[in-house]
Design a protein that fits this description.
The complex is a heterodimer of chains A (about 280) and B (about 270). With about 280 residues, chain A is mainly α. Chain A is built from ten helices and two strands. Chain A has a single domain, classed as MetI-like (MetI-like fold, Orthogonal Bundle), CATH 1.10.3720.10. In chain A, a hairpin with a 4-residue loop joins strand 1 and strand 2. The chains are: A mainly alpha (about 280), B alpha/beta (about 270).
Chain lengths: ~280, ~270
């Protein structure tokens, strides 16, 4: 009976994902029919003029995720190494608990902290007219995805046997050599899964990003200007879905943003699981 | 040369070597260790000759493996004096890592790295040495570990595809690639089949002709086969040490006699 229930649950999860994608395809279909994929390369988003270019939001999502990961990956890895290799038992569990608590904080709280602390700080320290920009979104996201990377890297490092550590030490390898040649390469499959899951979260995060990114529907000039207010796919959906009439082209365009986002994040999650499975098969 | 011949030759060479050399490769005096408040090693003192086979024997829980970890500085919180090659290990030139390269330690369970056989052999070398290492050097250490014949055609295969006995010999080759001055082995043939056991014993005896080898075992028959100097430990104490023939024929202490009789010891 339990077995049947577990099987049914797995199928229900799969069915929900398929239904979700089906719903997004159906709702965005008028948009794809009328505009096709050419809008992926257009930066103009003016709903009242029936212009629904997606490029600005795609670039915004890309930069925000890139900033977040480029900060969170080294920080998360350093924290995981510190926790598993240097800290003693009680300090290790304390740091783990801290990270798990950090992961449990609602994203809107991060957004509010960003509004009240991060934006004024960026504005005053960089001399900007407004602190709402891609950098703020990226910094906030980096804190939000940090626990994912840290916890998964910590798990991967903890799985390395003490025999491997002793074997490396008894060969006279110093601490940093053991880290770079034994520990990190062996933990890499778990670390990579953590990075891919963090990327999925960085791309899919809505509320906190929406509060700090500036929601400006245009491609930053130049495109690498991280101090310009911008828009991401999630913040666009979050901000405009309430203003669009159900069944309108504006609504279909927002559904197209959702479909794009869902496809990318589901692909990343699948990739993370696939790589993890391949690695475990290779290990056996 | 078959394995039995190798054992006989090795025994002859190392026995004459022990007699010829009076200097010591390792000198230990008053070594004690506590872990978590529990005394593990108590006032251990002995010396090893410049080369030859030395067997550390005793019941489970005697502290044999812990002692090896102390000699390799994997445990560093011990008290006492330890000199290797007439140098105090606490002031070893270039520190503990350099000492560990000079004192090869082979664990009970082979622990190879997930790379090829050849890469495992040179794993402990520095980056520059790894790039410059010759195929002849790899062949030489694999021959010393009695593994060359079995792996010469598949040096680039994954090391983890080898049998456990072969993996253990690869661990020995990996330690030998660092040109150690001494080899420490922690029950290297535990849970191996007789054939693998014989291969490893033969290669250890050959190695003992050129360097001091300290091998932990609680297999009395193996200790008899390997010969050399016996160091008998029980409950963290060194009970008795001496020539293996004398030890097995006429053990002096009651603990030794009990161990040899029952292969168990109750020192309390």
């Amino acid at each position: 009976m339990l077995n049947l229930w577990m099987r049914a649950s797995a199928w229900i999860c799969l069915a929900v994902v398929i239904l979700l994608l089906g719903f997004l395809v159906q709702q965005s279909w008028p948009y794809w029919q009328q505009y096709g994929f050419s809008t992926l390369f257009s930066g103009d988003w003016y709903p009242y003029e029936k212009l629904f270019g997606l490029t600005a939001a795609i670039i915004g999502s890309f930069w925000a995720a890139l900033i977040a990961l480029s900060i969170a990956i080294p920080t998360g890895l350093a924290a995981a190494v510190m926790s598993t290799e240097i800290l003693s038992g009680s300090w290790r569990s304390l740091s783990r608990t801290g990270m798990e608590l950090l992961a449990g904080i609602p994203s809107v709280v991060y957004g509010l902290l960003g509004l009240w602390v991060l934006l004024p700080l960026l504005q005053s320290s960089l001399g900007l007219l407004t602190g709402h920009n891609l950098l703020a979104a990226g910094l906030l996201l980096s804190v939000m995805v940090l626990p994912t990377i840290m916890v998964m890297a910590q798990d991967a490092l903890s799985e390395i046997s003490s025999e491997q550590r002793d074997a490396a030490a008894s060969l006279g390898m110093g601490w940093s050599e053991r880290l770079w040649r034994v520990l990190l390469p062996q933990a890499w499959p778990g670390i990579r899964s953590g990075i891919l899951l963090a990327l999925g979260r960085a791309l899919g995060e809505t509320m906190a990003v929406m509060l700090v990114v500036g929601s400006m529907d245009r491609i930053p000039e130049p495109f690498y200007n991280l101090l310009a207010p911008a828009q991401t796919l999630t913040s666009r959906i979050g901000r405009e879905i309430g203003e669009s009439a159900f069944g309108s082209m504006h609504f279909a365009a927002l559904m197209a943003c959702g479909l794009l986002l869902a496809t990318v994040t589901i692909t990343i999650s699948l990739l993370a699981h696939l790589r993890a499975d391949n690695t475990s098969v290779a290990r056996t | 040369m078959n394995i039995q011949k190798k054992i006989d030759v090795g025994l002859t060479i190392q026995q004459s070597a022990i007699k010829a050399d009076q200097a010591h490769s390792l000198k230990l005096s008053g070594l004690s260790l506590e872990l978590g408040g529990t005394p593990i090693l108590r006032d251990i003192s002995f010396a090893l000759p410049v080369h030859g086979m030395n067997i550390l024997i005793g019941p489970s829980g005697a502290g044999k493996s812990t002692l090896l970890r102390c000699l390799n500085l994997l445990h560093q919180s011990w008290q006492g004096d330890l000199h290797i090659m007439d140098k105090d290990v606490r002031t070893w030139p270039d520190g503990a890592d350099a000492l560990r390269r000079a004192v090869g330690l082979i664990a009970q369970k082979p622990s190879l790295f997930p790379c090829s056989i050849a890469q495992n052999v040179v794993f402990g070398l520095g980056r520059k040495a790894r790039k410059q290492v010759s195929d002849e050097h790899i062949e030489q250490v694999l021959r010393q570990a009695a593994l060359w014949g079995e792996v010469k055609d598949r040096l680039h295969d994954k090391a983890l595809t080898l049998s456990v006995g072969q993996q253990q010999r690869l661990c020995i080759a990996r330690a030998l690639a660092l040109a150690p001055k001494m080899l420490l082995l922690d029950e290297p043939t535990a849970s191996l089949d007789p054939r693998s056991k014989q291969c490893i014993e033969a290669s250890l005896l050959e190695l003992a002709a050129t360097m001091p080898v300290l091998c932990v075992t609680h297999d009395i028959e193996q200790a008899k086969r390997l010969g050399g100097q016996i160091i008998f430990m029980c409950d963290g104490h060194l009970i008795e040490s001496g020539d293996s023939v004398d030890f097995f024929a006429r053990p002096e202490r009651i603990e030794s006699r009990e161990f040899l009789r029952w292969s168990v010891c109750d020192c309390s």
